Amino acid sequence: MKLKRSVDKDRSRLKRLYDTIGGVSVASFRLEDAERAMKALPSELSSASRRQFAQLISKVLRLAVYPCKLLGRSPPPLGFLPAVRAQKITAYLYPDEDAKLMDCAAVPMLHRILYGFLAREGLRLGEALSKRWKDLDLDRGVVALDENKIDDPRAWAMSAGMATALATFKPKGVFSERFGVCWGRSQSCGRDV
Predict the structure, then answer these.
(1) Which residues span the domain enclosing 150?
(2) Which three-class secondary structure string do you get for the chain?
(3) Does one domain contain both 46 and 108?
(4) Would you say the pTM of this structure is higher than 0.85?
(5) Domain match, 65 and 121 both
């Protein structure tokens, strides 16, 4: 069985739910208990986060039905999971802001390249930091993203100039090292910045 990537987050969510409904045994758990747990969540949580809490409640109760056979049926009905509202607009740099950032000597060069890479290529910070140099074909200007949050591997041509900027800071003779280490330790990246 594949280990779920969000195990630690699930533990934290289960602890929060337990703080609200921990005194209720699984055998006596009712829909009202699930609703009370959801109402106790902070109002500022996103709809996606609220849904994750509801999914955990539903999953535990489905397990209580089978294979545990503690309940005859799961108390929350099919419509219990809250809908996820439309995504918020994501932040990005306007061309004039990007130009100012790239020209700002107060920001370390490697950070400017990282910000430019994120803005131009659309990767999440964690995705960018976990990339290995072998995932980047700097000669052809291609980036490969085999593992990501949505399990949708893909490859694409980098924005103009991005491969050149990355090649400038790539350590000589390095192939498999994570290039994410360069963002935090400039001395390992072949350039003094």
Answers:
(1) 95-183
(2) CCCCCCHHHHHHHHHHHHHHHCCCCHHHCCHHHHHHHHHCCCCCCCHHHHHHHHHHHHHHHHHHHCCCCCCCCCCCCHHHCCCCCCCCCCCCCCHHHHHHHHHCCCCCHHHHHHHHHHHHHCCCHHHHHHCEHHHEECCCCEEEECCCCCCCCEEEECCCCHHHHHHHHCCCCCCCCECCHHHHCHHHHCCCC
(3) no
(4) no
(5) no
Q: Is residue 42 part of a domain?
A: yes
Q: Cα(141)–Cα(167) distance, rounded to whole angstroms?
A: 10
Please tell me the predicted confidence (pLDDT) of residue 176.
57
Per-residue pLDDT reduced to its tens digit, 27-70? 999 999 999 999 999 999 888 899 999 999 999 999 999 999 99
In a domain, 103, yes or no: yes
